[in-house]
Amino acid sequence: MLSLPDFKEKQVLFIRAEHGVSNNIRFLNDNIVFSKDGKVVNRASCHRVFAVFVLGDMTITSGLMKDGVRHGVSFFFLKENFESYASLNATVEGHVILRQSQYQKTGQEELDMARKLVANKIQNQCALLKERDMKKGLFKEQKTYMKKAASAESRDSLRGIEGSASRAFFQEYFKDMKWHRRAPRSKEDIPNVLLDIGYTMLFNCVESLLRLHGFDTYKGFYHTLFFQRKSLACDIMEPMRPIIDRELLKMHNLKRINKKDFKINGNRYLLPYQNSKKYAEIFLQAIMDRKEDIYGYVHDYYRYAIRGDEEAFPSFQIERL
Fold it and tell me: 227 with 210: CB under 8 angstroms?
């Protein structure tokens, strides 16, 4: 398992393949080497890399897969819309005790965990709203949602509470961006396109950390079992989503979002391949700025999963204490 001192030294690489050339990644003398048409473009020590995000078509070899596992480096291969279509994850295999603890949780135990998770997410949304001098009425409304989440009688009712709280949050927090609604993967406007990119990258980072600890990422406690959905990763990233929300608003305030970077196809906004890198790098930097906090939260959840009631359910704080 990766320790925090080791993880502090790790970095995430983002590699964008170029159309019309031969793109290649390989390990060479303990370095990850990226080449175009046989010419080395960049390299990084495999001992300092935690994960590599590859956007576009790339040539890989069995040697890369073998060395990636040996050095504990995870690779995520992304479509041009930043949807992950394949991954090579470094993982802990055979952690039977941990997985038994996942599978043996009762419905009530999972509901208790989900309540705390959603309340934590709403708490972090409130922290962001305070930075914007949130309206007092909305603050009281969000506090009410937190109380309701703590006593929700089912996961269905909890999802309803979370949805209501998030709608109110988005409407207020992104009001200067002429916010309409959150519509995942719809690409109906620029904010939704960018949130999809940021959330996807955060999801991949969290899922990789969970696998490094030995979790079955398909077995969640808030997001229920669904074919091919990594429900636990969806769960654990929930209170961390405000990292991406904050970065999107910061991009808007600093005028780093250029409408000319996007194209419209019917009712969908598309981010052309050549314009995507700058937004990906901004979100990656935001995630890496909080990498120790993210690792700490995942590790605290690991301790909770192993020890149960002996450990408090972890909390992720968007504001550093």
Answer: no
